[in-house]
Amino acid sequence: MKTEKSDLALRSDQILNDLVGWRRDFHRFPELSFQEKRTSEKVGEILESFHTFEIEKNIGGYGIIATVSRGEGPVIGIRADMDALPVTETTDAPWASQHPGVMHACGHDAHMAILLGIARLLAEDTKAGRFHGTMKLIFQPAEESCDAAGKTGAMKMLESGKLDGLDAVLSLHMCPWRKSGGIQWNDGPSMANNDEFHLKIQGSGGHAGYPQHVKDPIWMATYVLQALYSLNGRKVNPLDVGTISVGQVHAGEANNVIPSTVDMKGTIRSYKDDVRDELYKEIHQVANIVTALGGEYSLRIHRGEPSLINDPVINRIIKEAACGLNMYEEPFGMGSEDFSHFTRKIPGAMFFLGCALEKERSLHQSDFDIDERSLPIGVRVLLESAYLLLKRGGVHSI
C-alpha cells in the first residue's frame, strides 16, 4: 500500500471543495439530538452516490453505518457525530444556520464532511483493490443529549448490535485552540466523566421580618455551597482531576418572604472512576449538613458519559499517520464526549484536529467557526490510521 498511501494527503487536498460544500450544507441546516432527519437523508444520499457501501439506516435513531469489505482482515470503525446545539448563531457567514436557535457550534458539521471525504477516497480504493479487511463508517446521532431513558446516540448504536465485532474505532474532534496543521492527542483518560446533581433543600418559609420562626433554606444553602466548593481542593488528590460546579440556585419569589425550598443543580467532572465514586460519596455527606441545620433534603445524581479513554497503541498509529503535522500531547479538558462509550467497549482513540481561525472561537459559542483548510487533514489522518490498522492486522497484532 506504500504507493497509494504516499499520495493520500494529495488526494485529500484535491477534494477540499467537496468537503467545504458538504460542511457548509450541514451547517446551514442544523438539527438537534434525535431530530437529525434531514441530515441523515443528506448523508445517505451522498454515500449512495459512491456505489460502494452497504448502507444501514435509522440505527439508534437517525444513525447510519456504511460498510465495505474486501477479503479477510480486521474490522475498523470511524465515527462522526451528527447533531447540533440549541444555540442562536451570531456569525455573519453566508452559510450561517437557517434554523433559528439551532447551530453547529461544536464542529459536528465538519466531522460529517470529513467522514464523507473518507467515504469518497475509500470508494476509490475499494475499486482499485488497495486494502484488505472491513471498514465501517459510523454516522452517529445525538452526541450532545440523551433520550428520556438517559441514553445518547453512541449507547443506542452500540446496543443495536450492528457494531459488534469491531476490532478498533477512530474519531476526531475539531479543536479551535490549535491552528490548522496540528493535532492534540493523549493516552488514557482524556475527557471527563460527566455527571449532574440536583439537591433540593426543604425548610419552612415565612415572613422575612421574623426569621426566628422559620427554618431558612437559603441560610442552609450557604453552608452547603461552602462545603461543596471545598471538596474541589480538599477531598480530591491534587494529582487527580475532579471538580464540582454549581450552575443553578433557585429560591424565593419575593424580597420579604423567606422561601420554603432551595433548588441547587450542578455538574460533577472527573477523569478516574474512583474519583467519580468518591465525589458521589462526598456530595451525599455534604447534603447531610441540611439535616444538622434542621432542614430536610433530597439528592439525585444522574450518571452521564464516562471519561474518554484513548488506547495508547491506537494513538501510536494516529501519530504515525499524522507524520509532518504539529503534535501536542495534552488531555482535552473537562468537557465530555459520548465517544467514550465506544472506547469503553472497543479499543479506540479520538484526537483533536486543529482548526483555529485568527480570532479564536470556543466550542459551544454562538460565533463558533473553523478554518476549513483543516478538513482534508482530518481525512488524511483518519483514513491513513485505518489503513495502518488494517495492514498490521488490528490492534492486537501491533
Identify the notable features of this structure and list them briefly.
alpha/beta, Peptidase_M20_dimer, 398 residues, metal-binding, 34% helix, disordered N terminus, 2 domains, elongated, Aminopeptidase, Alpha-Beta Plaits
Brief characterization of the structure:
This protein has 398 residues and is α/β, with parallel strands linked by helices. It has eleven helices and 16 strands.
Description:
With 398 residues, the protein is α/β, with parallel strands linked by helices. It has two domains: 2-191 and 307-397, Zn peptidases (Aminopeptidase, 3-Layer(aba) Sandwich), CATH 3.40.630.10; 193-303, Alpha-Beta Plaits, CATH 3.30.70. The protein has helices at residues 2-6, 8-14, 16-28, 37-49, 108-128, 153-159, 217-234, 273-292, 312-321, 340-343, 375-391; strands spanning 54-59, 63-70, 75-81, 133-140, 168-179, 182-185, 188-191, 193-202, 206-207, 242-250, 257-258, 261-270, 296-303, 308-310, 326-329, 348-356. The strands form four sheets. An eight-stranded mixed β-sheet has the order 1-2-4-3-5-16-6-15, with helices on both faces. Strand 1 (54-59) and strand 2 form a beta hairpin. Helix 3 runs antiparallel to helix 5, helix 7 (217-234) packs antiparallel against helix 8 (273-292) and helix 9 packs across helix 11 (375-391). It starts with a helix and ends in a 7-residue tail after the last helix. GO terms for molecular function: metal ion binding; N-acetyldiaminopimelate deacetylase activity.
